[in-house]
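re: ur question from earlier - yeah i can do the single chain one, its not a big deal. heres the input i used so u can compare w yours
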Amino acid sequence: MRRVLVLLSQALLAAVPALAQQDLTGEYISMFHEDQPERIPGPALGDYLGLPISDAARAYAEAWDASRMTLKEHQCMVHVAPYIFRGPGPVRIWQEKDQETQEVTAIKIYHGTYQQTRTVWMDGRPHPPESALHTWMGFSTGKWEGDTLTVYTTHMKQGWLRRNGLPESDRATLTEHFIKHGDILTRMSMITDPVYLTEPLVKTDDFIRNTHLDVNWIWPCEPVEEVVTRAKGAVPHYLPGTNAFLKEFQETVHVPETAQRGGAQTMYPEFKTMPVAGVRTASGAVQPVRIQQSRIATDSEIHVIPVRENIYVLTGPGGNVTVQVGKQGILLVDTMSGESSGRVLAAIAKISSASLRYIINTQSGPDHTGGNAALRKTGRMVFAGPGAGALTDAAEGAAIIAHGEVLKRMSAPTGQQSLMPAAAWPTETFFGDEHELYFNGESIQILHQPSANTDGDSIVYFRRSDVISTGDLFVLNSFPMIDIEKGGSLQGIIDGLNRVLDIAIPEFNEEGGTLIVPGHGRLCDEADVAEYRDMVTIIRDRIEAMLKKRMSLAEIKAARPAFEYEPLYGSTPNWSTDQFIEAAYKSLTRKN
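and the output i got, formated as tokens:
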């Protein structure tokens, strides 16, 4: 009897939640309090009071034009996890439990604002590598600290610190504490952003349990052509010094400009009105300031990231390799650098033991073709000679497919010494707009993008899987690398990015759907490409405006037309901001 009582007691204790944990489940509605003007009608343009923003964030916001939200790629974008709690919609919280143990594996949060569901994993799983897909809600893990639920979130897309143009970068992280007192739920958030914040931004939001109404907010969104007269590829924005609306807030509330323009110093009671050094002025001039570069952490490991069905991406310091596997064998898009070949082969072996049949090169650079020779010889491309009774009469390594200009660059046909061994050269080339391939039950289009990074660039579209490999047309670690001597151009980059946006179709709320593998950086979707396209287009428009004023290259560099984007893209070795601006300048002034 004693043993039965002990076992019964243990079972009852196992069924009781850990000491001091709160039951957060239920539906809540917002208590707006004093922040109602910001959360409902929205903050005024130019109002950055009390926010620890960087100079880059301020410059981004001063160029922001709300008309950008009329672009099809932006119409259905939603608020990211840190900001969505400040929306007007209800919040519903529930638990998911393991069917066997009845332990809580996840806490789910549904936002009526934009119809988003967020998962907070409670089972101790690790966060994925940086190269994994980023989403609006990010990847969240939680733990109980007494009666407080603490949540840590990574892998969020670029969003808003405040929806008057102040950005939050895709390198931000979020820490939250959920505290419940009776029917009141308080959420305290702390955003850390190495790009657009100089100190953590701490906010609180209050909610009250909804016990009366069953409120179900849904937000179906389908993008349409809102402005039919706008030129294709145009991105609404204000050139530096031309946003006439920035003064309205200051003139209405009568606060000093140094306070209105924000910065960490405006957060504290000790703040006194004084000039703020290194800030972009309303006229567009920038006082000298050293931008703190935000580097993506160096990771020497090659990660295998599942993309969709039989498509994977290998991400590492040498770039990205897209892998398609199936009954017919393995197909690769690009091969990284030569020194990475051993690790690439080891990563492929984790996915499939099939033979390598095809390599597609998106361009001729060594970070895309360096592994060609080593990887090609491990595979076999079967050829059938005339009258052959079987498809096994020849096996000469994997086939390498690329645009004809890639072969010209790699083989140095003008008589110069080639920098690449002949075993790395393409074995099949095409010279038109596209080349088609059907492999592993899938149609694959290799689409030439003329005059982009070089004159031989291609993007690869896996049609059934709905995955695009862009090569260096789209990267997340640098400004576009334009090789003028090899036929590259700034406009070609923009045209290529718009072509990717034309092909890509998001699944819901500008997320998912067509997945996109950049030349370098994490897995993406259409929203990520749209942000990059906007950046390149805005910089082009600024340089063109400066050229109309007959500014020299030195003057354009000094004006820093890429100012707010430097922390994101300006720290890549061997491709500085100045090199990009110089290449853009030469491209825009080159005589046809």
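Residues 26-209 form one domain. not sure if urs matches, ping me
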